[in-house]
Amino acid sequence: MSDAGERFHVRLADGRQFGPADPDLLRQWAVERRIPPGAHLVPESGGEAIPAIDHPALRPLLTAPPTMPGAISDARPDAISTLIPYRNPAALTGYYVGVLALIPGVGLVAGPIAVLLGIAGLRHARACAHARGRAHAWVAIALGSLTFLGNGAILFFYLASR
Fold it and tell me: How far is Cα 6 from Cα 79, in angstroms, rounded to an integer?
């Protein structure tokens, strides 16, 4: 603003008036879109009101395009979601299906399902950072693959020996 100590009242088009506000507070109000472009600034010390959009310090703030807030992220995950990725059901389910596939014979069916769920869990973890569950997804892929191959090999050798 022109004078660092100068304070202004903000007069809206409907006649309501707010303030007085120092230059920093006026900038904050402009950033928060609390000062519409049609408002006027009235010096607290008296004098002529000027359009807020004509004030050199407020013009760039009032004419800037509106911004849109970003997605709220879960910056600090809770302890439970670190251990059990409940926000990534594919990875969690794939993990349990992979463990189920350790049962002899079940791995032929459950193994491929665990692999597919693990891949879906990895994709979901990449798309949504708050989902977590990459380790569970990798375990599902590994267990599903190993149990399918192991059960397939056992079945193959059993049938070959007959």
Answer: 51
